[in-house]
Specification:
Blueprint: E1 7-12, E2 15-16, H1 23-26, E3 34-40, E4 42-43, E5 56-57, H2 63-75, H3 82-88, E6 93-96, H4 98-111, E7 115-119, H5 122-125, H6 148-159, E8 162-165, H7 168-176, E9 184-186, E10 210-214, H8 223-231, E11 238-242, H9 248-257, E12 264-268, H10 272-280, E13 284-287, H11 302-309, E14 314-317, H12 322-325, E15 333-335, H13 340-352, H14 354-371, H15 374-391
Parallel strand pairs: 1-3, 1-6, 2-4, 3-5, 6-7, 7-8, 8-9, 10-11, 10-13, 11-12, 13-14, 14-15
Length: 396
């Protein structure tokens, strides 16, 4: 139930909620004047418990509702469950990801309220999002078959009053794709910064003096480059990898091929509390992100900020928004993307020089405390949304 003292607004995420997207509800964690109402078309049980209130799922599992949902997505018709959204009297829609903005556009128009869209990473960088589904050489552009996002993109650019970017890298990428610069606002997301002493009583992992990394096992996370870097380091060096994903089997196979079976510990998906334990006891942390072959890139990885907040020595890549938080030789070390030798050298330095490495880690934590605190960033985002409401910009 919405607090009557707060102004309701909709948060559109088509799938509510993948477990890996805890950064979405965290975006509203310090709101005091606005009340988020989450809405989507698919319930995801793996992460739905992270939402602060039960979501609006547009329609049930019956054939009629499935047809209406498909028509809503493709043609912008009234979705099932629309009456409940009207009754909630929202003043704005905040859509997560570019495609979410395209899907929410008809809702904003029907409700007569402004639409704000947050771009996180791949939704700005992936080539496939900005290319026709079907297009032939010499075919006029107007004849090409376009997906929902590309089809609605001109209207989205024209009518959404504000487009939010989680890093300046994302903003510049969107400008390069023809987005209006005056509508693009850079505001990084934040993380919860726990007191350092809050993690000290936790039991240490079985491994000692290890390098730690975590994330979905997809190409842009750079785990393949990290394995190659490990192969260049002394055989006693240990690496712990947390996460799961489509490249899991391929990465396990690569580790075997590189002769790293006894150096890599795969711990699978870990809860935020477990991640903090691994971070706290790590000798160094690697964030080896890189641009995928299909253009997929990070915005500003949450794991980077979590590692920095743990005050551990962090080695990252000069990729996407990472250098906006991690500054070379000021609060960590940076290397080029897809550079196993450079990554190995930087990690080896952290392991061989613990005192300067820990000094970099302490500086990294200060950076997060000052610039990427979840409560502070959330309050700034609430101000942004309320300013959009005050302007009274409607999506037509």
């Amino acid at each position: 139930m919405v607090n009557p003292a707060k102004i309701p607004f909709l948060v559109y995420r088509d799938q509510l909620l993948p477990a890996s997207e805890g950064f979405i509800p965290r975006q509203y964690c310090a709101f005091t004047r606005l009340a988020p109402l989450f809405v989507g078309t698919k319930r995801r049980m793996d992460g739905i418990s992270q939402l602060p209130s039960p979501p609006y799922i547009l329609g049930g599992n019956g054939l009629g509702d499935r047809i209406k949902r498909a028509a809503f997505k493709q043609f912008g018709t009234e979705p099932p469950g629309f009456a409940a959204l009207v009754a909630a009297e929202p003043r704005l829609i905040h859509a997560q990801f570019g495609r979410g903005g395209a899907l929410a556009l008809p809702l904003a128009r029907r409700l007569g309220i402004p639409l704000v869209v947050t771009f996180h990473g791949g939704d700005a960088t992936k080539s496939k999002h900005y290319e026709p589904v079907l297009g032939l050489p010499l075919m006029p552009e107007k004849w090409a078959v376009k997906g929902i996002y590309l089809r609605r993109l001109p209207r989205l650019m024209a009518t959404a009053p504000t487009l939010h970017c989680v890093s300046e890298f994302i903003r510049q990428t969107l400008i390069g794709r023809g987005f209006p610069p005056e509508k693009l606002v850079t505001l990084p997301l934040g993380i919860v910064v726990p007191p350092l002493d809050a993690t000290r009583p936790t039991p240490p992992p079985l491994e000692k003096n290890y390098i730690f990394t975590a994330g979905r096992m997809v190409e842009k996370k750079g785990f393949s480059s990290l394995l190659k870097a490990l192969a260049l380091m002394p055989p006693a060096t240990k690496l712990v990898i947390a996460g799961d994903g489509e490249l899991k089997t391929a990465l396990h196979r690569e580790a075997q091929t590189l002769g790293l079976a006894n150096q890599v510990k795969w711990v699978g998906w870990q809860s935020p509390d477990q991640i903090r334990i691994w971070l706290h006891h790590a000798a160094a942390v690697a964030v080896p992100s890189e641009t995928s072959q299909n253009g997929d890139a990070e915005g500003l990885p949450s794991f980077l900020l979590e590692a920095m907040a743990s005050a551990r020595p962090v080695v990252g890549t000069r990729h996407a928004g990472i250098p906006e938080a991690l500054r070379h030789e000021q609060n960590g070390l940076l290397v080029a993307e897809r550079d196993p030798a450079g990554l190995a050298a930087a990690l080896s330095f952290m392991l061989a020089h613990p005192e300067p490495a820990l000094a970099l880690g302490r500086a990294a934590r200060t950076t997060v405390e000052q610039n990427f605190n979840a409560a502070t960033q959330s309050q700034k985002f609430e101000n942004l949304l309320q300013n959009v409401m005050a302007r009274g910009s409607l999506t037509h």
